[in-house]
Each structure stands twice: as structure tokens, then as C-alpha cells.
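Dear colleague,

As promised, here are the two records you asked about, laid out in our usual form so they can be pasted straight into your sheet.

NAME FIELD: protein one
SEQUENCE, THEN STRUCTURE:
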Amino acid sequence: MLLHIRHLLDYNKKKFTALLLLVLWAGAILVVSIWPANKMPDISLKFSDKMGHLVAYAILSILAILYTKLSGRMSNRTGHWFIITLLVTVLYGSLLEIIQGAMSIGRNFEFLDIMADAAGSFIGLTIAGLFMTLQKRQV
């Protein structure tokens, strides 16, 4: 019984950690998205703004699928959750773009940013799907 309780606690720690990472990452995206343009640090990056969107939303979708899997909701409807995750992450990015366009923060609504968010989410879900497939084969 003690082993069962220990396993349950470890499982809940993993689930909580996955949720915490998901919320923190979504929060970081929110903060960066609504931060006034003139207050942004001047970071000379080797990649474009669109690449930043792509990477940020790939990570967001991976974290969302990880949490969904650890919460036990995925079971045999994996494809269903992948579609929901894609829709929710693209909706989140779209809402942030609308907020950027509506606020006077020196940022603009850009449809190409939404496309980069969608591409990043799709790439992240593809990576997550590949890892889940490899994990199943190893079991």
C-alpha cells in the first residue's frame, strides 16, 4: 500500500509540474506579447520574429500535450487531443495578436504571426506525437 501511495504522489508531482510549466510558459508568452515595444530589450537575435513565434508555440503545444497525457485524459483519443491542442494554441496566439492591435503599446496585429504560431504548434505536436510513438514501441 505504501508503494501505491508513493507511486500516486510521484504521478501527481509529474502532473503538477507539467501543469506549472504549461502555465508559466503561456504566461511568459503573454508578457512578451503585451510588453510595450519601446520597453523591449534590444536583443540581437540570429533569427526572425516569426522564428520566435514558431519556437514559442512549438514548446507551448508540447507542454499542453504532456500535461494532457499525464492527466490521464488522452487514453485512446490521442488524435482528438492533438486537434484540440492545435486549436487552443492557435486561438491563444490569435487573441494575443488582437490584443496587440487593440492596445497602444507600439505593437501591431500581424496575420503572419498567427501563421507562425500555428506552424509552431503543428511542429510541436508532430514532435510530441513522434516521441509518444517511440515511447509506445519501447514498452
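NAME FIELD: protein two
SEQUENCE, THEN STRUCTURE:
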Amino acid sequence: MAEYIRLTNESTIGEVAISIEVLKHIAQIEIEEDKDVRLANEGLFKTPISCNIEGNKLKLNINLDVRFKCNVKEVTNRLQQRIDESISHMTTYDLEEINLNVVGFIIE
């Protein structure tokens, strides 16, 4: 069963809602475009991206690997900002929280 977030709109015709799977996919695209991070191995975690909905507020939790020797704080701050901006731009929805959990390193 899909879970949805109601988007604020000025329409009197009806409501607009977006599946949390869409929000997770937007975050995944931002992660894939960043050369310094990748989603953590799904074998270790049920899913590297999860969402919690309380009321109409969404918290996004993401398990990541960060490239070895990169500044973790800079990389994660940049990624949080990009995910927030993308979701806000594409859906007009503002996330309550974007939690990035660094669980490993990319060593190449």
C-alpha cells in the first residue's frame, strides 16, 4: 500500500498528493549524480532510503557510503541541500528532516 503526502495547493477542484516513493526516487537521483557518495549496500540494510510520516510531515533517512578521504561534513551538507532543493522545486513540499547516515566508505 503506497503512502502519500498531501501537497498544499490553492485549487478548489481537489487535493494533490504525492507518493513517498517519488520523494525517495528524487533523493536517489541526487545521490547518483554525486561522485563522492553512493547508497549503502542494500544487503546490509532493508532499504538504504526510508521515510517516516507523522501527520503530513515527512522525515527522510538515507544510509550512505562516502568516498574515502572526502570531508564527510562538507559532502553530507552539500547532499542534504541538493536533496532538499530538488524535492522542494519539483513538488513544492518541504521535508521536515533529511537524515544522512554514513555507514561506510568508497575505497577505489
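A couple of things worth noting about protein two: The beta strands are 4-7, 16-19, 37-39, 49-54, 57-67, 97-106. The first strand starts at residue 4 and ends at 7.

Best,
R.
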